[in-house]
Amino acid sequence: MSLTAVDLLEQLRAALDELEPLLVGRIVDIEMSRVRVLADPALFRREFALLIASAVADAEPTDSITVRVARTGTAARIEVLNERGGARLDGVTRSMTVPLAPGTSSAADT
Predict the structure, then answer these.
(1) Half-sphere exposure of residue 82: CA atoms within 13 angstroms, side-chain side
(2) Coil, strand or helix: which one is 23?
(3) Structural domain contains residue 14
(4) Are the C-beta atoms of 79 and 95 separated by less than 8 Å?
């Protein structure tokens, strides 16, 4: 596994592009500020795809999917949530945490 500094937003968008057939007709919101993380790009996209696929499997066809990223200390926490009518559905949050790239502020988002 080769970790490299990558733009998290670019990686998330690339993963969503690969999942386009699964997401047809769905709203996917990304809530985050730009941040660089240490990740193996291929492994990251595969793990993120699993989070999205799991969220879609548990959702109704009209539910939206929200991807929320927050910096927490020396890492970025990525949460994938199902939402129905703008309200988060209980018990359907999936998450993963990746380390921030060197030189990235470790201040938590407010």
Answers:
(1) 20
(2) helix
(3) yes
(4) yes
Provide the number of structural domains found in the chain: 1
pLDDT in tens, 33-87: 889 999 999 999 999 999 999 888 888 888 889 899 999 889 999 999 887 765 5
The token pair at 105 is 């502020």
- Residue 71 identity: R
Report the phi/psi class of residue 25: left, alpha or beta, with left for phi > 0 and alpha for psi in -120 to 50: left
Whether 107 is in a domain gets the answer no
| 24 class by beta-carbon count within 10 Å (0-12 exposed, 13-18 middle, 19+ buried) | exposed
pLDDT at 110: 40
